[in-house]
């Protein structure tokens, strides 16, 4: 059974606080396991990758077969049906059009003293894109990672993807072709993150790692941050649906299950103002669960991490939503824009009952690599900006230096940093002659 809560319950606060801690995403044991895997890959490189891939994905590789060869890629792609090609191309086109609007502008201006100031944007050089593949395959995640990177102008794009039992979805490889990926490595989990961060004999280290994954992937990304950049913590999926009484319980139940079926560590929560809808959705979830191929995963996620919360009004719902800061937030209410205006924290919002979260997973256009485990309180979904850096620019003229340099001298003196101050003084002296 999922958690059944009401804000009118005497123990609501305590139970809600527990709900916020249910996900295993940052559990200590997962973190310890990820740390051990990273240390192993750092020490033993390819040999560790080969061994860990055999242990976790049941695939026997050699350093020479860690990467898909161009011929293998072509042979897999040849199997893709025209219907699947068309669907993937439509998704790619919409994702590209959305992300092209994110390209930032350089800026440059002359201030009143004549100093030229501004900033310049440029791409990072090499990105490692993690594409999950442990229990499901994610061609859509290839597009969501690689298209913003390509739009940003990243020079080297590599993908790592686990291939359990040696199986790869050919659409994953087609997606890499559609989005400018240079190399695809069949490695997953914390070991893939370690290889991208530290490099091995075969896999060259990258500057930044992006992409979603399970709890081990998320923990590994946390750990390698600093050695390389990371986009965010994009761990096991989450959905929060806020619904009023005018909803079809089956639609809401399917939306909750759409994220529960990703992972036993996923989390699906319904907040509703209507007790009748709460009960009907609870029942619909139980019935629909039985029809899903991935019912074992979805049932475990719903049972262990799921919740149905009844609230007095949408104001209460908004306040709880900000605390949950869910990866996905569906607003199935009469005036979703008004409710959205009251909520600050969510990875992505889906407005109105005709916008199922799954549209955002595939073809909406916005990115589906999104912050989880409450990190939407301080981070955003993947974008072109994640693959770019901003460098500030400043050019002083003698007049500008003469006008503002004295303040730098004073501040340097107060910090006790003599060379700083003198680097300004030396120039001012040239302008004005030595000062007494
Ligand atoms: N937040 C997002 O933006 C987003 C987007 C898409 C998918 N996801 C999430 O991605 C995840 C995909 O998970 P997945 O498992 O299918 O694929 P995955 O590729 O993330 O993980 C598979 C790998 O996990 C490692 N692993 C599994 N069990 C382990 C263990 N006991 N110890 C150490 N390592 C272990 C293995 O190396 C395996 O190759 C799901 O949680 C899904 O919800 C999140
Ligand atoms: N819902 C996932 C993000 O949490 C993304 C995805 C890809 N395919 C299906 N779903
Ligand atoms: Zn999904």
TrEMBL record:
UniProt binding sites for Zn(2+): 259, 262, 361, 420
Record keywords: Amino-acid biosynthesis, Histidine biosynthesis, Metal-binding, NAD, Oxidoreductase, Zinc
Enzyme class: oxidoreductase
Segment forming the signal sequence: none
Coiled coil: none
Keyword Kinase: no
Cofactor: Zn(2+)
Enzyme active site: 327 (proton acceptor), 328 (proton acceptor)
Gene Ontology cellular-component annotations: cytosol
Protein name, per record: Histidinol dehydrogenase
Organism field: Oceaniovalibus guishaninsula JLT2003
Taxonomic classification: Bacteria, Pseudomonadati, Pseudomonadota, Alphaproteobacteria, Rhodobacterales
């Amino acid at each position: 059974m999922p958690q059944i809560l009401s804000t009118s319950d005497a123990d609501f606060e305590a139970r809600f606080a527990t709900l916020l801690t249910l996900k295993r995403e940052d559990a200590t044991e997962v973190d310890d396991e990820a740390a051990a895997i990273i240390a192993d890959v750092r020490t033993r490189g390819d040999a560790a990758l080969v061994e860990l891939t055999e242990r976790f994905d049941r695939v026997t590789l050699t350093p020479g077969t860690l990467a898909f060869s161009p011929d293998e890629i072509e042979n897999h792609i040849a199997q893709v049906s025209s219907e699947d090609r068309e669907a993937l191309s439509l998704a790619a086109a919409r994702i590209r059009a959305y992300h092209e609007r994110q390209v930032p502008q350089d800026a440059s201006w002359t201030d009143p003293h004549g100093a030229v100031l501004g900033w310049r944007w440029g791409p990072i050089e090499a990105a490692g894109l993690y594409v999950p593949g442990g229990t499901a395959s994610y061609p859509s995640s290839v597009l969501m990672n690689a298209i913003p990177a390509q739009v940003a102008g990243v020079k080297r794009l590599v993908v790592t993807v686990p291939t359990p039992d040696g199986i790869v979805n050919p659409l994953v490889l087609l997606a890499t072709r559609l989005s400018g990926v240079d190399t695809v490595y069949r490695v997953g989990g914390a070991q893939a993150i370690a290889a991208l961060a530290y490099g091995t004999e075969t896999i060259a280290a990258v500057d930044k790692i992006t992409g979603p994954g399970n709890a081990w992937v998320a923990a590994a990304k946390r750990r390698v941050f600093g050695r390389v950049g990371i986009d965010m913590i994009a761990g096991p999926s989450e959905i929060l649906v806020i619904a009023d009484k005018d909803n079809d319980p089956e639609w809401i139940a399917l939306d909750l299950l759409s994220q529960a079926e990703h992972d036993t560590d996923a989390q699906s929560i319904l907040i509703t103002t209507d007790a009748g809808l709460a009960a009907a959705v609870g029942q619909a979830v139980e019935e629909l669960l039985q029809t899903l191929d991935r019912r074992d995963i979805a049932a475990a996620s719903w049972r262990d991490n799921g919740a149905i919360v009844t609230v007095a009004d949408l104001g209460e719902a908004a306040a709880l939503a900000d605390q949950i800061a869910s990866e996905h937030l569906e607003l199935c209410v009469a005036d979703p824009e008004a409710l959205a205006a009251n909520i600050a924290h969510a990875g992505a919002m889906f407005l109105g009952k005709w916008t199922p979260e799954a549209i955002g997973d595939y073809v909406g256009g916005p990115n589906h690599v999104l912050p989880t485990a409450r990190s939407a309180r301080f981070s955003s979904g993947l974008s072109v900006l994640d693959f770019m850096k901003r460098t500030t620019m400043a050019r002083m003229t003698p007049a500008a230096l003469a006008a503002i340099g004295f303040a730098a001298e004073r501040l340097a003196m107060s910090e006790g940093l003599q060379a700083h101050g003198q680097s300004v003084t030396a120039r001012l002296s040239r302008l004005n002659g030595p000062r007494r």
